[in-house]
Design goal:
By secondary structure, the chain is mostly beta strands. It has a domain of 42 residues. The protein has no helices and six strands. A four-stranded antiparallel β-sheet has the order 3-6-4-5, with no helix packed on it. A two-stranded antiparallel ribbon has the order 1-2. β1 and β2 form a beta hairpin. The chain starts with 9 loop residues before the first strand and ends in a 9-residue tail after the last strand.
Amino acid sequence: MCNGAVTTTRLTRDKSATVNPAVTWTPITADNRPHPGARVLLINREAGVAQIAPFKDDGWYTHFAGLPVFGGEV
C-alpha cells in the first residue's frame, strides 16, 4: 500500500517479469517527450529493450515511463 492506494502487481504470462497494470508506457511524440537529460525508463517497443537512462532525443526509443518515488518525495 502506498499513500492509501492499493497497488496490484502480477507476473506476466511467461512469468519473466512482475508488472503493475496501472502503470503504462507513454509514447514519445513530437508533442510529448521527456525533458532532455532527465532520467526516465525508456523502451524501444519493437526491439523489446528497456533501460533507465537520461533521455536523449535520438529517435531510437519509442516510449517512456516516469520513475517511481517514495510517498511524498519529488
